[in-house]
Write a structure and sequence with these properties.
Layout (H helix, E strand, L loop, with lengths): L4 E5 L8 H18 L3 E5 L4 H7 L4 E3 L16 H7 L3 E4 L8 H13 L3 E6 L5 H5 L5 E4 L11 H4 L1 H11 L6 E4 L6 H9 L4 E4 L1 H4 L4 H18 L1
Parallel strand pairs: 1-2, 1-8, 2-3, 3-4, 4-5, 5-6, 6-7
Helix pairs in contact: 1-10, 8-10
Length: 228
């Protein structure tokens, strides 16, 4: 990972799978190449293998289970996503919580497999404790703002500034801000407040012109990083 860290979470939108999912991935790859900025896509488990073969940008899973290989029907393990071609995964998203013991186990196994990890938290008080587990980054997202169109950087900037103070308590872990990110200005403010990047979902996945939206977000992320 290298700032600005940009993660587009495909979630389970109708644009996240099949032909439309591939088209979205290709759009994001194009913008990534044109701006010389890495864009990570976090995709449904069923799309990992396909997209890992079709695009050059990093493909992440949206979730992994911290269970051992064996009799765990429906589980998605670190070994599964590694074999499918994923470079890493989100963990503990507010829409897919993971128990602490499973989270710790999943992280340890991901590290052994050379997989990157981003732990999601819903409040800044959890940034340092989760950072001690040594993921690549911690993504802070107040759940009430997710998908709201009202960005954390504008509605609750103190979440980012407090999270920045918390992440300084650990070493070599990035901080990403998310929830309600919609415009380039949202991104610019989040990074100027101290975050190393941003996470976005509906603003891109539900956009009429996703290329225009992601270009605006990325260019503002680059501008903010240059001014830091």
């Amino acid at each position: 990972m290298k700032p600005p860290i940009i993660i587009v979470n495909f979630k389970a939108y109708e644009t996240s799978y099949g032909k439309r999912g591939l088209e979205m991935a290709k759009i994001l790859e194009k913008v990534s190449i044109e701006t010389s900025t890495e864009i990570i896509i976090s995709v449904p488990a069923t799309m990992i293998s396909r997209l890992a073969q079709e695009v050059t940008i990093p493909v992440y899973a949206q979730h992994v289970d911290g269970v051992s290989e064996g009799a765990h029907t429906g589980a998605v393990t670190p070994e599964h996503i590694k074999d499918a071609g994923a470079r890493g995964s989100l963990l503990n998203h507010s829409e897919k919580r993971v128990r602490m013991d499973e989270l710790d186990d999943a992280l340890k196994r991901m590290k052994k497999l050379g997989l990157e990890s981003v732990i999601c938290v819903d409040r800044y008080e959890l940034v340092a404790p989760m950072g001690l587990l040594k993921p690549g980054a911690v993504l802070v997202e107040p759940p009430e703002l997710i998908g709201s169109g009202v960005s954390v950087s504008k509605a609750r900037p103190e979440v980012i500034t407090n999270a920045v103070n918390e992440i300084r308590k650990v070493e070599d872990v990035y901080l990403i801000a998310g929830a309600g990110i919609t415009t380039g200005e949202d991104v610019y403010v989040a990074i100027k407040l101290g975050s190393d990047g941003f996470g976005v979902a509906s603003a891109v996945m539900k956009a009429k012109d996703p290329q225009k939206v992601i270009q605006d977000l990325v260019l503002n992320a680059i501008r903010a990083m240059e001014e830091k």
